[in-house]
Amino acid sequence: MVVDDVALLRLGIATVLEAMGVDVVAETGCGRDVPRLVQECRAGIVVLGIVADLAPPEIVRRLKALDPPPVVVALMQRTHREELAALLSLDTEGLVVRSAGREELTLVLEHVVKGERVVSPVLLAALAGAVGPTELDPPDELRLTVREREVLALLAEGRANREIAGALFVTLATVKTHLAHIYTKLGARNRNEALGRAVELGLFA
After folding, report:
1. How far is C-alpha 56 from the geometric centre of its chain's CA atoms?
2. Model confidence pTM above 0.85
3. Residue 64 and residue 99: Cα distance in Å, rounded?
4. Tell me: the pLDDT tens digits for 47-95?
5. Strand, coil or helix: what is 149?
């Protein structure tokens, strides 16, 4: 299902989906209609753009309350940290800029269908900033070391492992070790899940 105010954009997204062999069962420019249409049409994936009547986090919240909830890929027009954090905390499977091209959107959809969470590097950069303590002190097993917090902050900027190593003046192997510890502590399988979990825990100041 495709959701956006702009009919031409909905058409473009539908074309990408159909090229992947995904049937588009519904489309709308009204956020309030989305949960009902998902249930009526049994849509398994919702590509959510911008609509005037509801904010993306509210739409996702309503979608995730369905049984079963659909996979959601949100197309972001702005990079507000609060909205990104809200969408991540709601387990939004994909976050990509609204201006993404065919190749990027296709790649994101391929990954979310496999059960992975994907966040565009541009949006990850919007989450970057100082990484500080949570308001509620986390259990010992979730506490990150100072160096792990530095790695996490660079990860949020969309830095590759080699770039992180260069920025911190450590070896690539050391970065991989830090990432392994971060993933274990946050219960994540990859960098996107780690960032989503970090946002949920309030690790980004």
Report:
1. 12
2. no
3. 25
4. 999 999 999 999 999 999 999 999 999 998 766 777 887 888 788 988 8
5. helix
The per-residue pLDDT for range 126-146, each reduced to its tens digit, is 665 534 444 444 555 557 888
Domain that holds residue 98: 2-123
Cα 65 from Cα 164, distance rounded (Å): 38
Q: Which phi and psi angles does 72 have, rounded to 5°?
A: -120, 130
Cβ-Cβ contacts under 8 Å for 114 (sequence gap 6 or more): none
| Residue 198 structure tokens | 């970090």
CATH code of residue 112: 3.40.50.2300
Q: Are residues 119 and 48 in the same domain?
A: yes
> From CA 140, how far away is CA 58, in angstroms rounded?
33
> Looking at the 3D structure of the chain, how many domains does it have?
2
In angstroms, the first-to-last Cα distance of the chain is 35
Structure tokens at 97: 């800029």
Name which residue leads in pLDDT, 49 or 155: 49
Bridge partners for 48 per DSSP: 3, 74
- CA distance linking residue 13 with residue 7, whole number of Å: 10
pLDDT level of residue 123 (50, 70, 90 thresholds)? confident
Is residue 97 domain-shared with residue 152, that is, in the same domain?
no
Which one-letter amino acid corresponds to residue 107?
Answer: L
